[in-house]
Amino acid sequence: MESKRQQKVSSLLQQELAAVFQRDLPHLFPGLAPGISTVRVSPDLGVARVYLSQLLAREGSGEATLELVRENQKIVRQALAKRIRQQLRIVPDLVFFLDDSAAYAAKMDQVLGTLNIPAPEPETDDQPDTAVPKRPKLFADDDDE
Question: Where is this region: Disordered (predicted)?
Fold first, then answer.
């Protein structure tokens, strides 16, 4: 569980890194727009794990984007330092990861869409629908009430 300070720093880093990628350094990432999905900061605020998302990217271009960001990591950290120098004393080390949760959710949606689950047939008994169902026996010594 993150402390309030970690949450505040994570939020600040997420906003400022998005601005760095979109406004300060778009020339380093031509045709690519890496989005920041999540930032997790270590308890000592020394390391920030940055998760990049590629929502509108082609299949397989996420790894290329991640490699390009890692190559320019020093420049990204310097640009971030210029933006947050008034809020933080030390700029955390940035470690970039690819966030594949959107792709995973799309795949799970596809898998669930292909399942063929038959709908339960309605009961045609003479009992009204308001009847309380019988409680299942959970233990051997349960008595009928």
Answer: 116-145
